[in-house]
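Hello again, I could really use a second opinion on something today. I've dropped the whole record in just underneath, so have a look.
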Amino acid sequence: MESFADIQQRHFMQCWGRQKEYRPLPVQQTDGCWIETTDGRRIFDLRSAHECINLGFRHPRVMKAMQEQMGKVVYVTDDFATEPTAELARTLAELAPGSSDRKVYFSQSGAAAVEAAIKAARMYKYNEVMGGSQQNVDAPVQYPFPYKIISRYRSWHGSTAGAASVSGDPRRWFMEPLAMPGVVFAPDADNYRNLFGEGSEGVDRNIAYLNYLIEQEGGSNKVAAMLVETVVGSNGIIPPPPGYMQKLRELCDKWQILLIVDETMTGMGRTGRFFAFEHYGIEPDIIVMGKALGVYAPIAATIFSEKISRSFDDQIFGHGQSFSGHALAAAGALESIRVLHEENLLEKTRELGDYLGQRLHELKEKHPCVGDVRGLGLFWTLELVANRETREPLRKHTEKYTKTVVKDIAEFLFHEKNIYVPGDKFGVWVVPPLVVTREELDWVVDGIDEALLIGDQHLENSL
């Protein structure tokens, strides 16, 4: 008899993969940080189900809240109001810094939330021009309204047309030359691989280049927004250097352009703060949330500051999506936020994150293939290198789908240690659910310790 795994293999289109290589494992159940297959194998999910399951699988409070909501209302259009949708919108507006007089648009994925952010930024700028409130900063009037979005090369914002267009990740190449126009890419902010040098001087040079870039792209007359992941996710888990986010905010203010922060991976407490940008004391104009916001049902949010929200009081917000404000998903998200705060998971994440970082730095001392250890909260990576002095990577940024020793290490962890990590990253991904225990972290780090011997051996064989 054909198993459901065989059926899925034949009829389900796996994302970002060669279909002939697709071999899904049949899952019996999930619980906490663990996935159990039908043959009794228990696998630790070290990527939190695509970074969506911050609270682990089957958290009882969230499950109960969703079950209760199913007995009331699952979904109605936004011509009607439901209690969880309203409460979630108000909660997110109040959790964001600054004025709580914000508005929140709900979609079903981080990519869709990014699309809403891009569109709203351009519409806001259009409203600004039409209302006569825009003040050009040393830029000639050449276009009816600012439309350009500046992003960064080491970035990933989603696979829909607009979100992929503003992503520097090699996955963008699959849709070129049909990418959305009006996107400009800037260098990254990476302490380990900084084109502008390390420390505060490197940050100043980076910001100076961004200033030059904005000016050359038409300044406030043509540039609508700067879009960044607070902590770069898929492209290396890269926290910004000290001072970078603050100076980026100042630069956006100077040119009167919007600052959009993508917190799809880092929101919902992943770094030990509800929003990762809280570490840097800034107030973005638009905040994007996704993934872990919904936990067990798809929901994402685009949070608009008061000035942007008010610009649509008398102008149409020309955007929409079926299932926006889905009541069942909102009920799960709302309870998830309560769990984060009432069960002190933010504080726990900071404490366990410090411990995890210490353990991972110990691995760097033991294994020459580890070039850098970086992260915040429970969002960490080990970047693997062929040479510590030159920092030559074992997988280059452009080799995302090339089989390298990084993939070998991921496969060893999966098949030999029952630890699931993605094999397409640029190092070892260490992103456990926030409900992980210290004992589980120790077990995981011990497994990574053994797996890194593969990388060390690769370096020896290359001599």
Q: What stands out?
A: The mean pLDDT is 94. The radius of gyration is 22 Å. DSSP finds 14 helices and 15 strands in the chain. The first strand starts at residue 27 and ends at 31.
